[in-house]
Fold each of these.
Amino acid sequence: MVKTLEELGYCGADCSACYIYRSVNFGEALPQETLRRWREDAKKFWGMDNLEAEQLNCRGCRHSHEGVFFAFTLCPVRTCARERGVNSCGYCPEMKTCKRLDVPESKANQEQVISRE
């Protein structure tokens, strides 16, 4: 199923497939395994000793909202897209050669959305 731009992150990731996004936006229960893995990653990559479920407040990286998800401030793809003023990496002339976009499915999602316009 082809997604709309609003259903994708800047990078083309399908937000509706993310447990955190679904928990925040649709009220679904956050799986404990997801929280455990985020806690491990937060400690390993960002030196965070304590990550609470409430900190995983993702509403999607392209949306502006108060209390933005902390991981967005660390994302080089989001930072780049915002600096370039593009609503999606799919609109960037360097998307096909971008080293930041290392997930093939994300690039494919971008290409599908942009090709429909």
Note: The mean pLDDT is 84.
Amino acid sequence: MSQKHKNVLKQLFPAELRENHDLDMILEGDHLDQVQAGAETLLSNVFPDTTFELLPDWERLLGLSQGEDASTTARVAACVAKFKETGGLSITYFKQLAAAMGLTIEIVEPQPFMAGIGAAGDTIYEPDSIWCWRVDVMDVVPVAVLYFRAGESPAGDPLMSFFRPEIVDVFENLKPAHTFVYFKFAYYEDFTTYIEQDANYHIAATELEITFENLDCNEDAWVRKDFGIDFFSGNFAHQLMVKATGHDDAGMAGVWAMTNILDDLKGIEDASGDFLSLIMLYDTGASAYKLRLRECDSGTLYDDDYTIAVDTEYYLTIHRDETVGSFGTLYCYVYSDAERTDLIDTLAIALHTSKKDFRYLFGVNSYNSAAAVQKLSGVVSYLKIITP
């Protein structure tokens, strides 16, 4: 209202009264002001996206049960997502539903082996798999890859506290009744499950981070995991954060690598082997730290560089696209922010000779050129396998 209620009440009297009458008008006017404000608040609470005071009522009506630590913003977002549910049968519908909850997903529908359609090397699924579908949740945070069914995640599971479990309940409620849906959550790699070789104690690995101090170019040292023969066999996308923290002369180290041989990067190169890698180095000629995207093809090297600043975090997405070029193209997208919205450079190498598949993934790998006093220090963290 343009006028307070006390002023409106005064205008209702034929004569102007003062003193106690004024006090009565103020008191009654204040009560009417509160009623008006309450009515306006109630009007905004009619809709789930602007509710506050009636938020518990919306949650009750929509069948939502939020954790005690859930923020008001998260609770409102859950109400909006639930309110917008209409049901659907298409993959597009469920992907849009997840997007409304702030999640990126892919949906996989297993197909049983069929004569004339299946081929050697295809996964063999049970015939009843045609009633099943899997939701791969991409953009969530840490610790391993877990598979679970709705309601089966154990109490205290970090998944329940980190990753918006309401997507499970929503999909269970809206899926076609004759189907079974299960979920795969992509997490950051747990480096404590990797194998570390570090005779000189230059590497320290925690769940989400590898720190290397004075990693020398005359030692074999690494943190790696064996995913199995030809595991990385097609297109893939990995994310990680890297930071250079110091050097002594022309230090160099791999801060991400795929190989089929257990050796340092220089050893694989000298053995005419193959690898894909991202190398951090200090270029003494340019007096600058660099990130170097590298392919080693039967011992021949192909590189693309980007100059970086010391003690600065860079957020990377490394992507192999086998549809680009004769044997695929390897990209490294360099971002300045964790959300990966500020792209500052793109490294690219058109891959050579033949299609190559890999089994070992390295978080850190040394470059043993037998050069003493060429040391590098840095950090690798938040490695996430988006797609194998």
Note: The first strand starts at residue 105 and ends at 108.
